Amino acid sequence: MSFELSVAENEYLPADAAEVNAIVTVAAPATLGVGTTAKLCEVIVVDISTSMQGARLRSAREAAAVAVDQILDGAHFAIIAGNHRATVIVPMAESTPERRTFAKQIVGNLQCEGGTAIGTWLEKASEQFALTPGDIHHCLLLTDGKDESEAHNQLEQAIASCIGQFQCDCRGVGTNWIVEELRSISSALLGTVDIVPEPSLLSAEFARIIQTAMSKQVGDVGLRVWTPQGSHLQYLKEVFPAEEDRTSMATPVNPLTVDFPTGAWAAGESRDYHLCVHVTPAPVNEERLAARVSIVVNGEPTEVSLVRARWTDDEALSARICPEVAHYTGQSDLAQAIADGLEALQVGDQQTATVKLGNAVKLASDVNNTQTLKLLQRVVDVDDAPTGTIRLKSSIDKADEMALDTRRTVTVRIAVKD
Amino acid sequence: MSADDCFCECCGAPLAAAPAAHPTPAPSEPAGCVDCGGSAVDPDGYCERCGRLQSAPTDHIEIELEALAGVTDKGLVHPRNEDSMALVELDTDAQSFAVVVCDGVSTSQHADQASRVAADAAVAVLGKALDDPSIDLVGATADALATAQAAVIALVWDRTDALGPPSCTYVSALRRDGGAVVTASIGDTRAYWFASQGSARLSPDDSWAADQIAGGVDPAIAEADPRAHAITHWLGVDAPALAPHVVTQAIDEPGRLLVCSDGLWNYASTIERLAPMVQSGSPLDAAQILNHFALEQGGHDNITVVVVTVAPSKETSA
Asked: Which residue among B30, B277, B287, B313 is least packed, with the fewest CB closer than 10 Å?
């Protein structure tokens, strides 16, 4: 098996230009060879704070049981009940039919009590992962509320201590949780964040998340980037399937080389990254290597792709825009316009909100991101999408606003014209 | 790259039949990166410290044999020289010689290697025909082309890369014992014959413009089209069926043969414009003058020029 790498860029720069942009596509092999089965470890964290009482708790019990059923024989799993404390209700052990039946009985009897201390939950999950060595550590975390039963910086510290220990997908049920709080976890722990507006949707969501987690076959895949002396790596963002800035996650390998974590991969999975490097311009008609990108699997670098910079006086060459770079730059602008628009809405600045969300509608239309356009249409009335002519709805459902906030960074790939 | 490799790549004639007249270019000592002074260069030719693409031994090569000489140059715009030439002369007056010029397609992967392996493989086959009268020259010309195609196809390439598989154009010229010159071409590298009476271009282009002109379009209109230079035939795994233009040029009078890539003829494609430069001085003088001319005109592509002083057969002229 080998990962594949490809680079899309316009390597031609006008004289004295320094910024080099490239979209790097990383694809896992369609089939992974025999003997590459990774050891999977799963921790499910279920919120049992008092606010879960009623339909939410009933749905959470069912969803946890459904999740347990998706865990493959031979994987390891644990379940944590979270309130102002974190209680291991099913300790980390190998998944067997008997173990899963036992776990389902336990989650079926969950009762509500107490507050919400998400940092404490994460630390407990980390302890459980430490009990058994595995190649792929994944956590599913469910809450319905705000982190309010622990010291102010406890969550931040817990996240920092969990980086590199496991990946975490976060889900918020209802509308009383804080998007930025869960996003801070999922971004740092290479996971996703989303709203589950109705408790009845939890089972399907849990099943999907655990199935995806169980499909992962290679853990600890890194993206290694060499950049020349005198250059500055401006940013490395994952841009498909969602935008996540990974720049701050760089680990130095040597003075010119860093590794970025990408987490676990399923067979056939493919992602795009936007690399932006500032290099020292070379004279016109000369060339410099702006970056050498490789994939590191289990510590072994493989598959190298080159990002080049060639300086030219020929404007026909340097003015050409790389379609992939433009496409993802547009979606980055889209995510930012939505964030700005929602922020303006929250402080009651309707004028700014209309301008920003109108621009978002135009950008979503430009890059053909129909999913995001649909989410926007639940918050604004669209008169004309291509020009971004919109009106704010007189009343906006809180769940729709939160869905737009959580999913604004979900991207689509450039339309393939065959 | 070892000194042996350098010799081999520069003269392009790993032949037992190759005469000792080949010049051995002195392998240049790496003087450090022009940009940062670093000494380590990666296999792709970039400085391992500052990333600057280093000048390569192939950036400018001159080869002078007795009656033929060649110059290849990366030009002023392209970062690499993706043209290759190979020449061999059995005697001292071009009664028996072989020349191959290939131009790597710049939108293909490893275009420099494609032209190199094609030229090397072809000249090895042509060289065997130089001193073996039992070998038919047209047959050897076809064999050389097929061998070049096989060499290009054998190159490793990446199917996921946006650039296509390794590809190059091809032109060869072969003469034995003062007989006719047999040329073969695919793509838009060219051979010309210059003489006081019967000057001629020996290789039609396989290009969009050539196809249009053949179909009746006004040459001025076809040549001005942005697609004019798009080639329609080449060597490579994705090449259309090989249909080389094979031409036999009788040598009845003294003259000069020019074999060149489009980096030259883009700036002067007619016999009238080329002739004064081709006829200047020694073959090396002429090749240098032509190369210099293309650089002066902008050097937008790699330039390769081979000039041969061709005399009629000694037996008939004696």
From this structure: B30
Query: B274 pLDDT exceeds 70?
Result: yes
| A290/B36 Cβ within 8 A | no
Cβ separation A286–B36 shorter than 8 A = no
Average pLDDT score, chain A? 94
Rg (CA), chain A: 23
CA distance B191 to B259: 4
**What single-letter DSSP state applies at residue A50?**
G
Task: Report how far apart the first and last C-alpha atoms of chain B are (Å, whole number).
Answer: 47
Q: Are A292 and A33 in contact (CB under 8 A)?
A: no
CA distance A125 to A416: 42
Among candidate residues A329, A324, A335, A332, the one with its CA nearest the CA of residue A415: A324
Structure tokens at A32: 């992974």
**Of A57, A59, A65, A117, whose CA–CA distance to A90 is shortest?**
A65
Of A244-253, B18-27, B144-153, where does mean pLDDT reach its minimum? B18-27
Instruction: State which amino acid sits at residue B280.
Output: S
Residue listed under structure tokens 């290479």: A190
For residue B267, the tally of other CB atoms under 10 A from its CB is: 20
* Gap from A6 CA to chain B (nearest CA, Å): 6
Q: In what order do the strands lie in the sheet with B68-73?
A: B60-64, B68-73, B303-310, B255-260, B190-195, B200-201
Distance CA B304, CA B302 (A): 7
Average pLDDT over residues A291-295: 96
pTM across the whole model: 0.78
Evaluate the omega torsion of the peptide bond into residue A241 and state whether it is cis, within 30 degrees of 0. Answer: yes
Quick check: B162 and A230 CB within 8 A?
no
Number of helices and strands (H, E) in chain B? 9, 13
Mean pLDDT, rounded, of chain B: 88
CA angle A167, A168, A170 (to 5 degrees): 165
Task: Out of A6, A228, A280, name the one closest to residue B161 (CB).
Answer: A6
Number of other CB atoms surrounding residue B204 within 10 Å: 14
Give the containing element (helix H, strand E) for A122: helix A118-131
- Give the type of residue at B264: L
Contacts of residue A395, defined as CB under 8 A and 6 or more positions apart, other chains included, come to none
Chain A residues lying within 8 Å of B35, measured CB to CB = 282, 288
Instruction: Note whether ipTM > 0.90 here.
Output: no
